[in-house]
Amino acid sequence: MRIPPLDPPLEQAVDSTAVRIADMLAHPPPPDFAPDDYGPRSRRWHAQSLSKGAAGVAILHGVRAQTGHGEWEPVHEWLRRATADPLNNAGGAGLWFGVPAVAHALTTATPHAHPRNLGLLDRAVADLVRRQLDAAAARFQERARPSLGEFDLVRGLTGLGSHLLRRNPDGLLLRRVLAYLVRLTEPVAAHDEAGPTAPGWWAADPLVRGTVVPGGHANLGMAHGIAGPLALLALAARQNITVPGHADAIGRICTWLDTWRQNGPTGPWWPERLTAAEFHAGQPTATEPNRPSWCYGTPGLARAQQLAAIALADPGRRQSAEDALARCLADPAQLGRIIDPSLCHGWAGLAATTWYAAADARSTSLATALPPIVRQLIQHADSTAPARSGLIEGHAGAAITLHTIATRTDIRWASSVLIN
Questions:
Q1: pLDDT-based confidence at 210, cuts 50/70/90?
Q2: What is the pTM for the complete model shown?
């Protein structure tokens, strides 16, 4: 459906807030690290991050420039900052950091980028993808559990697949990633506390940093959990890009999410994670939904399931996903848990997810729920100055969401968070 325009005063506020934040982020600030600080925790490395640094801000300015609302010089300034140091293509590199993040920023922000520059990055990303696929193949052979970093959106093969779907949708490497995700949905005959009935994406990672949880866990969220692979498989299918077993894999994930759907008085919700004890008990210990974030909450999970339903041509599941999001948006208790304007876990993530979901929805309920969410985004963006860098965790995410809603355009930046 076509999303109705916002009323003129709100539309003006949306546009002016986007402009204000973009102006505050027009130039990279002076480096806030010592020139000789190359330590692993140095803020120097934020530059090559979509989440907290220059690569993400370049996407904001590139989207604005492509729609005729900004200049190209800020794009180039932020890209220069992002590439000031050697780019990481090893531990920690993924869609949100290192070579893939800069390649994604360049692809999204500068469609006129020099082919040589993109070619170098393409080869580096392809090398990383092949290494990760080889490591996953060895892990499958050993019948071991994956780590979240093997398959998640932030640094795993789902995020790399999202970039490939944006950059080279006809390539063989994307199909290898999709085939890997299909296999990920199949059970692993591992001898551990989770047992043979646990899904193939059951992770060996501890739940809390430094605390070992017996039997690992299953993560349901968009950022680190199975909703990310579901969204990528669905978005690829929507472009008629499929591999053997593609629809079955989408169905397996959806059925598993159906099993763990919790029905509360304010609507359905899903736990963020499940331990082996919860899995075997058939019930999470959580008794109410957490904050309605893109990364772990109902909005991201509902959008992933809406995309899956569209890919499977399943009107019942589509309606169920849209209703889950609409009821979440109508619950003041859930909305009251959001305290910042970010894309990851704040108002921008909620607004962007709702906007894209409303564009695909068959009813007007999501479009009707959007204006109050946008007002909250503006309020929180205005109350948290000065602007922080970064697309996912900084103010650039708020600005790009507001710009998209104000201009009613889509430059496909949302592939960074797999909501479109």
A1: low
A2: 0.97
Residue 328 assigned to a binding site: no
C-alpha triplet 48, 40, 74: angle, nearest 5°: 20
Structure tokens at 261: 């759907």
pLDDT band per the 50, 70, 90 thresholds, residue 1: low
User: Counting beta carbons within 10 angstroms of the beta carbon of residue 20, is it exposed (0 to 12), middle (13 to 18) or buried (19 or more)?
Assistant: middle
Q: How far apart are the first and last CA of the chain?
A: 15
Do 116 and 105 contact (CB within 8 A), yes or no?
no
pLDDT at 60: 98
Are the C-beta atoms of 50 and 56 separated by less than 8 Å? Answer: yes
For 250, the token pair is 């989408």
More confident residue, 34 or 88: 88
Kindly give the interhelix angle for 54-66 and 73-82, rounded to the nearest 10 degrees: 160
Sign of the torsion angle spanned by Cα atoms 392, 396, 399, 404: negative
Minimal CA–CA distance to 201: which of 234, 237, 157? 157
